[in-house]
Amino acid sequence: MSTTGKTNSNVLTEGPSRAAARAMLRGVGFTKEDLHKPIIGIANTWTEIGPCNYHLRDIAAAVKEGIRAAGGTPMEFNTVTISDGITMGTQGMKASLISRDLIADSIELVARGNSFDGLVCIAGCDKNMPGAVMALARLDIPGLMLYGGSIAPGHMHVGADGKTPEPGSKNEIDITIQQVFEAIGAHAAGKITDAQLEEAEATACPGPGACGGQFTANTMAMAGEFLGISPIQLTGVPAMSTEKHAASREAGKLVMDLARAGLKPSQIITRESIEDAIAAVCASGGSTNAVLHLIAIAKELDIPLSVDDFDIISEKTPFICDLQPGGKYVAKDYQDAGGSRVLAQRLVEKNLLHGNTPTVTGKTLREEANSAHETPNQHIILPWSAPLKSTGGLVILKGNLAPEGCVVKVAGHERIHHTGTARVFDSEDLCFAAINEGKINPNDVLVIRYEGPRGGPGMREMLAVTAAIKGIPELSETVALLTDGRFSGATRGLMAGHVAPEAQLAGPIAAVHEGDTITFDIPGRKLTLNVPDAEIAQRLANFIAPAPRFKRGVFFKYANSVSSASLGAVTT
User: Contact at 8 Å (CB) between 276 and 354?
Assistant: First the structure.
């Protein structure tokens, strides 16, 4: 094994036969000496379309400093990104999940094409991170995923109720993009004025960084730490923190340690480390999207993982992090409280963490937990004596409506049983219109179908719908929703996503009729269409799948190659 870390790039840069390649690289500024050092790729998801990734050029510059200081040569390249928050509620949201696999493919292509000795993937949004980790696992060269960091909370003026936007008020609360989506629903229902909506819009995003609650971005950043593929604590430093440059520079040094040691992702991401990541997601009330993404990551390394594993781990893992959307605080508060080392320490205390595999820091997760520094009197990562719930934030339901399973986030709501009348919509847009037109009644069960991996395609998130419901008081605590699409990590309420098989593939969700009744039974882990089995079978026997929504291009190719949500919605 090379002690210098230059194990792959020799074929690209060494010997007389590579003079032409060196000449081209010298043409863009690399020196003769640079090209004889380990070559470290930097996959950057920078874009100026949205705050999550806007600052990643600065992160990359700091990472490069660290790589150079440690004796390597960084080579940066870009890949695509889609902002979930900006595209939410539009056809553009279909591109979000599709981008995950495209990001993985594009990083793989550049890394294989250039024989990198190591790789740093800099990610800032929901699908960047799992896409980056999938690429690292697939390539299996020394590397790590570095999170660009969370946005700072905004500060909104509120009225006497402590919640409603009120321009000019002296009272302030911390807010995230979640409150803007909910304000949209309240505005559509006539509950707040144009000026109050503007107050939320203007204050929610004070600068760069990913959405602030324990939504999908922060969930996957935390999962990366517990997988061991992201440097714990370093990756959690908020986007605009004064510590971010030093943390990113240190990550650059770490990748050189990995290259010299020959430590690869397949030695870091194991069945045990995936279970540790699931435990962290459940304990923190993380996003349902973690189910899709961790299954997809496991598949890259042929590690068996199913939706049932999430339910088993969640059932024994209390929910202890008071984070939005179900709780009060945001990612910056979590980091300030002591971050993932403290949560790891908690999980070790309750024997809920393996923590024995190496991580990119060179230490095991247990060793990292031993060095936790908990902020005195913090109220974010709670003690086991005072959990928010006795079990984790995710449950998997099956039953005649979801034979392959669906995912429910139980953090942030108390309903564990619900039976209501089915209101059936063949797209998210139709459901959103019905809410805005006042056509939804208390206790209804909204069924949104043909938004699955193939039917959408791309499994749109339903935050526009769920936030609109939350913005209408008479609906927010009574309506339930199920879909073969997805939910945002910012979603609150009784919502079942990833219903599989999906409607496009003649899953039972395609057999639901307007006026049927549907029952959610959280303790019994059942999602039931209250129609006789023979009737469901008869309805499906007459089923004709809708024509594909896209006839060519990337959406068409994705729809023809993507697997079920229960299998991670991966492309084959």
Answer: yes
Closest CA to 484 of 566, 570, 394: 566
Assess whether 169 carries a catalytic annotation.
no
b or e along 468-498 (b: 16 or more beta carbons within 10 Å of the residue's beta carbon)?
bbbbbeebbebbbbbbbbbbbbbbbbbbbbb
- Quick check: 37 and 294 in contact, CB under 8 A? no
pLDDT tens track for 540-550: 999 999 999 99
Q: Which of 488, 561, 563, 566 is catalytic?
A: 488
Taking only the tens place, the pLDDT of each residue in 8-63 is 999 999 999 999 999 999 999 999 999 999 999 999 999 999 999 999 999 999 99
pTM above threshold 0.70: yes
Mode of pairing for the β-strands spanning 495-500 and 405-409: antiparallel
Contacts 24+ apart (CB under 8 A), 178-184: 178/211, 178/213, 178/215, 178/324, 178/325, 178/467, 178/490, 178/492, 179/204, 180/204, 181/88, 181/463, 181/464, 181/467, 181/468, 181/490, 182/467, 182/470, 182/471, 183/471, 184/464, 184/467, 184/468, 184/471
Rounded to whole angstroms, the Cα distance separating 565 from 500 reads: 7
Query: What is the percent of the chain with per-residue pLDDT over 70, rounded to a whole number?
Result: 99
